[in-house]
Amino acid sequence: MNSILITGGTGSFGQAFTKRLLNEDRFQRIAILSRGEFAQSEMQERYQSDRLRFFVGDVRDRDRLRRAFEGIDIVIHAAALKRIEVGHYNPTEMVKTNIIGTMNVIEAAMDAKVKRVVGLSSDKAFQPVSPYGQSKALAETMLLNANNMRGDDGPTFAVCRYGNVAGSRGSVIPRWRAMKRDGIEVVPVSDPDCTRFWMHMDEAVSLVLEAIEAPKDILIPTLPAYRLGDLAEAMKVRMDVRGLPPWEKRHESMDIGNSSDTARRMTYSELVEALETV
């Protein structure tokens, strides 16, 4: 196996994943597929590697995926609409990208005879309450059940389900940091007693690399968790508590018995130290 393609490859995960791959010799060809031509241009300039290939395209476009997947051994399906509040008001867009887009990835991978497809999922897909979580739950189901219809020489499919990656684009840490830089010391918080899993981007990259070779269909890590109010204290911001919206859970779970409420709780000092690496 010497070629790999990442859908949504210009996002936070795709950037970190590509950086790791470029430091290894596992894949000779690394293809990036995403909608953002400017983000691709920035990424190409940043890495300047002849091992990189770029495709402007959308997972909603099955024909484009079929062309992009030609000659690809491994597909990492990271493209998704992820903002839960956006999904609440735009559920049909979540369906088009997260559900229909995943179906297109599956069918294009079968047509191109890709060897392995690894889909990235979220703790919000377990017992979902939001259109984002519901769309990712169905995407998981489609990926895992594709193993039952792939044929003798078709791809195998796997899912990595994990919590929010600390510092990823649009997540709470960079948002609060940006507000502090703008002189805003009071940040919006739904509920300080909310708990969330903590995962470093390096851990997410390692999990997905493991999923390429692992015999498992679904990989779920065991992670520590933190209280949102403790994170605010560690970041030295004051909270404007606004209440939990209907699309958000107080505690997240990745599987039965694997909840952010009962996971090992990170201390204030741990959070301060961990924030230095994000």
Can you walk through the features of this model?
By secondary structure, this protein is an alpha/beta fold. The protein has two domains: 3-163 and 198-219, Rossmann fold, CATH 3.40.50.720; 172-194 and 225-275, Alpha-Beta Complex (UDP-galactose 4-epimerase, domain 1), CATH 3.90.25. It is built from ten helices and 13 strands. The protein has helices at 12-22, 37-47, 62-68, 84-89, 91-112, 131-145, 172-181, 201-213, 228-234, 268-275; strands at 3-7, 29-34, 52-56, 74-77, 116-122, 156-162, 186-189, 195-197, 218-219, 225-227, 238-241, 253-255, 258-259. Strand 2, helix 2 and strand 3 (52-56) form a beta-alpha-beta unit. Helix 1 packs across helix 8 (201-213). The protein is globular and about 55 Å long. The model has no long low-confidence stretch (mean pLDDT 94).
